[in-house]
Amino acid sequence: MSYEKGISMTELDEENQYGVDYQRCAELISEAFSYMIFDRGFLHCDPHAGNIIVRQTGDDLKIVLLDHGLYSELSEGIRLSYTKLWRGILTQNEDVIKEASREIVGEKYYKVFTTMIVAESFENVMDKSKQVDVTASQKDAQGKAEMKDYAMLNSQEILEILSQMPSDIKLILKTTYYLKAVYERLGNPVNSTDIVNDMTWNVYVREWDKMEVKEKKRKYVKEFMKYWTLKMLFGMKTWLEFLQR
Questions:
Q1: Phi, psi dihedral angles at 40 (to 5 degrees)
Q2: What are residue 44's DSSP bridge partners?
Q3: Helical (H) or strand (E) element with 44
């Protein structure tokens, strides 16, 4: 056990009395947890604000995670299927979403399952006009109210999915909801979907032979074009937001 110096995430608010770069802070957190989930499959599952410290190190920040009592070591099958699911979500490929859902919880309620993962309606996930940020509605009260209504209307399906859901996925969901609260505390300064796009693509390229990808060469080129299209869209969105400051 050691004493770690820094600013607790619980002390960060809109006033930002410590002058912390909230955007960089959110980027580091998103990168760390995307790496744990998609690349390594070894996940800290208790990242609430009290378990995250921010520390200034020279010109950059360092994120320190506390309380290492709850970790999940994801099976390779779950890690790759979850990566495939997110590739399907990001590229708005319903067939890939359906395939990944079948591997994780079954195909029957793949649309509801996707909504549980992204906290966004399946219709919005597949809406081409919302391709840049599939989690945009999480940032306002209206989006949260819509998700609450959706959960009420689909409660039976959600309960059935939860009964079949592997414990690894439940822990990923728990972790994700903690992280959303942390991002909200920071003012949602980063579109973490861009980081997930990078991480899942890297895993896809490295381990596609394990993901049962058919017609590999043609499939690779097609997926690569989708990846770069998303990168350009994310970059353009970031640039426009910078100009508006």
A1: -95, -30
A2: 71
A3: strand 42-44
- pTM exceeds cut of 0.90: no
Rounded CA-CA distance 210/81 in Å is 10
Residue 174 contacts by C-beta under 8 Å, 6 or more apart in sequence? 45
Low-confidence ranges of the chain (pLDDT < 50): 137, 214-215, 242-243
H or E, element range at 64: strand 60-65
| CB-based contact 170:162 (threshold 8 Å) | yes
Q: Which pLDDT score is estimated for 238?
A: 58
| Four-CA torsion 98, 99, 100, 103, nearest 10 degrees | 120
Written as six digits, the tokens of 143 are 């989006």
DSSP 190: S
pLDDT of residue 137: 46
Secondary element (H or E) of residue 42: strand 42-44
CB 20 within 8 A of CB 7: yes
Count of C-beta atoms within a 10 Å radius of residue 5: 7
Neighbours of 10 (CB within 10 A): 13
Instruction: Find the distance separating the first CA and the last CA of the chain, reported in whole Å.
Output: 43
